[in-house]
Amino acid sequence: MLGRDFTLTILFISDILSQKDVSGHARLWHYTGAMNSSRLLATITEERISNPSDAPVRTNAENVMNQILSCSCSYDGKRFVTGGVDCHLRVYDMKSRRRLWMCSSSFTKEKMDGHVMRICAVKYHPRGAVYEDYVHIFITGGWDDTIQIWDDRYLHSLW
């Protein structure tokens, strides 16, 4: 599958390079500026999660990978979040390289507290670089024509 993958987003946090692509993989690299000494630190795999509004997925493979369409790193360099085709946001810890939790819609008709279609844009609040109050806040945009505001410590969007 390597020949069909292409990188959508590359982010730099200090000497860590974060790469996301449509194969459902997020890769963290120790970046030194020299090709020979840079090394892969971790590969994180995201499986696609079905939503109530999804049509059945037909595949010969056991697991269908989530296509990661966007990502953002927190300005304190401690977390990064990914968004993609399956409407779920995954928050990862940069140090442990593990998923902390998943943020998503509750998929109820009574409230809109997340995306119900693909997430195509994710961005941490730029004031998080200066003000502690904003370090967990990020915004997303999706194919459902909504913009959502999130706190990466909560499961559903704030607004």
TrEMBL record:
Cross-referenced SMART domains: WD40 (SM00320)
Domain of life: Eukaryota
Extent of the signal sequence: none
InterPro entries (alphabetical): WD40/YVTN_repeat-like_dom_sf (IPR015943), WD40_repeat_dom_sf (IPR036322), WD40_rpt (IPR001680)
Pfam (any one): WD40
PANTHER family, A to Z: CARBOHYDRATE BINDING DOMAIN CONTAINING PROTEIN (PTHR47822), F-BOX AND WD-40 DOMAIN PROTEIN 7 (PTHR47822:SF2)
Record's protein name: Uncharacterized protein
Organism: Schistosoma margrebowiei
